[in-house]
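Lay summary. Proteins are chains of building blocks that fold into shapes, and those shapes determine what they do. In this project we predict the shape from the chain. Here is one chain we studied, written as its sequence of building blocks.
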Amino acid sequence: MNMNIAFFLTETSARIPDHPAIHSEGQTVTYREMTRRVDALAHGLTTLGLDPGDVCVLMMPSSLSWALAYYALAKLGAVVVPINFLYRHKELAYIFQDAQPKAFIGDSDYLQEAMNVMASMPNLKIRVAAGDDLPHGFVCFKDLLNSKEAFNVHPTSPGDPFTIIYTSGTTGEPKGAVLSHKALMSDVTAVAGVRHTEPHDVVLSVLPLFHIYGMTHALNISIYLGLTIRMWRAFDVAELMSAIESEQSAILYAVPTMVNRLVQAAAMHPPKRSGLRFVISGGASLPVEILHRFEKAFGAPIYESYGLTEFSPTCIENPFGRPTRPGSIGLPIPPFQARVVDEEDRELPTGTVGELIVSGPAMMKEYLNKPEATRDTLRNGWLHTGDLARMDEDGYIYIVDRKKDMIIRGGYNVYPRELEEILYMHPAVSEAAVVGVPHQDLGEEVAAAIVLKPGSKVTADELKEFVKQEVAPYKYPRIIQFFEELPKTSAGKILKRSIDFENRRQ
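And here is the predicted shape, written in a compact code that computers can read:
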């Protein structure tokens, strides 16, 4: 069976060719025009030597160009690796070496860090970038949009990989979750099937498309349903407030930090009107009080959902059109299944806390080049999330805690082990432990507990600058406190949950 996510675009374009598809940076393209540009880009990339099965890094801000590249790569049967355009050398080097891309598509404003990595990768021969004044060796993105010929969708099989999205646990190296065309398409059709949209709905796209949440919800579901996407390169609360007031029928996908900032903005300047029909909140738990304040200010319901990169991502959601249960992530979305189990994968009674496991056709194929991690996560047909949860008598699921130490800062994943490795590189640091601490706006803030080597001196600001040189801006610890010693188990393992950030070294 031929299954390719590009069929979402071709089928919608055939059905409503003149309907606006994307409005971005002052230009609007219809589904017909979007398809024409995708076909042209697919031809252009093929001319450069990109073949079915080849891996291509896509590293640019959310934009029309990002969407065109994504669907062009799908059409020609390539594999896309979406990467945060803010990543630095250390973060990029591992991903590039692991994925072994043949091609790179980027943005002229964010090339330097990637170029430093590509300098040692002679097999990465195809280099494309949007923008002007490109470095030597790069082909201009817009120069690849000249073909007028249609491009037939490559006959990919359902299990063929389409995207590799890098995530990470709390230990070890980042892991590339390999998602097939079938997995991505299954999640789109399942999630779209439990919501009610109207043909004239406008999707307010403020989530980064390199993240699976934005990719699936803001882009792929919208294209599948034939909605109009109003897209921004980055989240700006003033611009989003203006759009909420001006649009007649809008849908917003957001993380709790965005919801909270809209609530704060509305408290200072109440919206003149609200065109929001509904909001989906994911990426982290949404405080109940913020949910209530938002619904009161904007007159639109918020439905909390749950997902993870390895599941393409959404598998659980509060049922659309019914009263939500604040604090709950909802019910499994058909045909997906969810269970709460003990350490032996035995189902637990109602109300008992255990590990949440999920199953269904949207599951990843594997972690790239990591068979042991794959076996640990995918067991007996179930994906083990590492999240602790409980289920009520009606089947609604509540996340209690995370088994993993991952920090979710403003909807972005921050992995303590990565930052600890960097902190240990500083000559003054003896011990380091990175944890998430509650934050009213971001949900969690990154905090580092530091023990210095005897006789060594370094300030918190100096350590912040040290880490900032190695990672994307949202990752570095904003809170750094010094301790005489850190609490440990009898085996010498640092007890992160016992760290008291008030009992700091002066």
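What the prediction tells us: The first helix runs from residue 7 to 15.
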